[in-house]
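Quick one: Acyltransferase 3 from Actibacterium atlanticum, C-alpha cells please.
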Amino acid sequence: MRFIAVVPVILFHAQVPFFTGGFVGVDVFFVISGFLITSILMNDLEKDRFSLVTFYERRARRILPALFAMIAACVVAAELILLPGEYQDFAESAGTAAVFLSNVFFWANSGYFDPISEESPLLHTWSLAVEEQYYLLFPLILWALWKAGPKTIVATLTAMTLASLALAEWGWRNEPTINFYFIGSRAFELFIGSLSAIWARRAPQTNGWLAGLGLAMIVAAIFGYSEEVPFPSIYALLPVVGTALVLLFARDGTQTARLLSLPLLVWVGLISYSAYLWHQPLLAFARVQEWVPLNALLTTALIAMTFALAFVSWKFVEQPFRSRGTDAKFSRRQIFIGSAVLIAVTFAYGLYGRASDGRLERWKLANPDIAREYALLHDGRENHKTRPDKSRPCTRNHRQFNAQTEEQILACYAQYGPAVAVLGDSIAEDLHGAMVAASERPFILGLTLGGCRLNRPVDKCSLDQILDFASRHPEVFEAVVTQQLSSPQMVWPSGSPVLVQDLRALAYDAEIPPLTLNTELVETGLDYAARLAAHVPVYFLAPRVEHHVPAAEVMRQGCDVSYKLRSGQMALFTQLDTYFQERIPQLGVDGLRYLPLSQMHIYDPATEIITCDVAYWRDGHHWSAKGEAYFGRRLIETGPYPFTWFAARGG
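--- reply ---
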C-alpha cells in the first residue's frame, strides 16, 4: 500500500503528465497511519501493556532520525544555493518542522498548489506535522475510551470523523488554505483508518471484489483529480474509502494482495518514508537554482536519485535506530535525549534564520557584486506583503465570498455608493492593489484570489457566490474589471499546458515556439464573464504582458541592463488579444466590453522591469508594491473608462 501512496506523490510533485491527482497519496498515507497506529495501540491495551512512553519512543525511532538527516542535508544545500529571503523561509520551515508545526507555517505563508510552493524544500513536512499531532492526541483519546467498550469507541470515532469531514466541507469554501493543512480538516482520514483497524480486528474478512474496488477508487483519484478539486472535502472520500477497502479486504489470495505483494512494490514500500522525505528537497532545490531547466531528463534523474537516497537512508539511518530491546543500538534514554537536542537545535536554527533575515549580512559579505540587485528584488517582494491600506477598510480585497463578506460590502456601499470591483486571480489582485495605491477612492472592491481565473471551478473560487450577489445587488457595482494570468490559457506544441514555472525555467535567450490557444478554457472564462455582464457592466482587460525574466538573470546581468522579452514571447499575448477582440463582440452581450492591448499600457522592458532605484516587478508576472503604484498611476492617467473613475476622490 505504501507504494500506492508514495509514488503518485513523487510523480505529482515532479509534474509528470497524467498524475494530476497524485497528491492524494498523502491521504492514502493518513489512512494507513490511522490503521496501523490504532492496531498497535489496541494490541497493547488488550494485553495491558499500554505505555505512552513506549509509544512515543517507537514514533521517535521511526520518524526522527531520517527526518533530521534530511533536514541537515537541506541546511547544507540552503547555505550554498538560497538567497537570503529564500533562506529565511527555509530556516523557519525547518524550525517549525522540528516541533511538528510546519503545517501551520505553510498555511500562514502559501497555498500548497501555489507555484512558489514548489520551491519550498520542506513543503512536504506539513503532512508529517499532521501525523505527529495525531500521534500526540489519539493515544490519549483511545486510552480514555478503552474501558467504556468498543461501542463507545466506535461511536465516538464516528462522530469525530463526521465532525472533521463537516469542518473540511466548510473549510474549503471559507478558508481553503488553512483547510488544506489543518489537522481538524484532515482528521477524518486518519479516523477512517482507525475505524478500519477496529473493524478488521472484530470481523476480519476477505473480499477480492471490494479490495479491487478500493484499489480502483485510489487509481481513479490519482489520474482523475487535479488541483481544481477542493481538498480535503467530500471528494477525499474516493481515495480514503478506497484505501480502507484495500486494508480491510485485500487479504492473501486476492488479486489485489498478489499485486501489492510484487517484489518491486514491496521494496518501494520499505523505503517509502525516506523516499517521501527526499523527493521534495531534490525537486525544490533544482527549481530554485535555475542553472538548468527542470526538463524531462533532469526530472527523471532526480526521481532516480530520490530512490537511491531513500535506500541509503533506510539502510543506514532508519534501520539502526528502529530496533528496540536487547537488539537496540541506541537506548531509550539516548533516543529521547538525542531527539530533544535535535529538536532544540533545529528550532533554534529557525529562529536564527528569522533573526538574521536569512543570514543577510553573511551573504552580502560573500556576494558583494550582486548585493544591490538582490536588495532591489527582495524589497519588491517584502514590501508587497504589507500592501493593504488599513486606514481605508472599504478598499480591502475579499479572497473568499461569504455572508460576512456580503455584509461588509453592503455597509461600504451604504457609506460611499457604488464601486468598481476587480475580479480574478493574482494578476487581478495586483490590479486591485494598483488602483488602491494610485486612487483616493474610499471604496474599491477587490474580489481576487491567487489561481482563481474565471475558467477555474466556480465553487473553489467563490465565483457562483459573486454572480449571485451581483444579480441581487447590481446597484453596488459601478463596473467589474477582470484580468487574469495569460500563460495557462495556452498549450505547448506537445499539447501540455503552459505553466508559469515553464516560462520561468526557460533560458533568457531562448526562443518560445508558437503556442496554441486552449479555446475550451478561454470560452469557459468568457461564458462566466457574459453571465456576470447580464447584471453589471463587465470590462474584460487585455492580457498582462508577462516578462518572466528570471531573478537569477537579473543577479547575473545587474540592474543597469536593458532587459527584453524572449523571441516569440509577445506572440503569446497578441494571440490572446486577437482572439478576445474577435470573440467578445460575437457573444452579443451589451454589458461585456473588451479593452485591447492597444488601449492598455504596455510597459517598456528595458526600463520598467527593474532599474538601479526600483524593482517594478516582484517576479516574472506580478508587480511589486512600487510597481503597483507606478503602473496604477499610468493606467488612471492614460487608460480608458473605467480607469478614469479612479481619478476622482468619490465618497
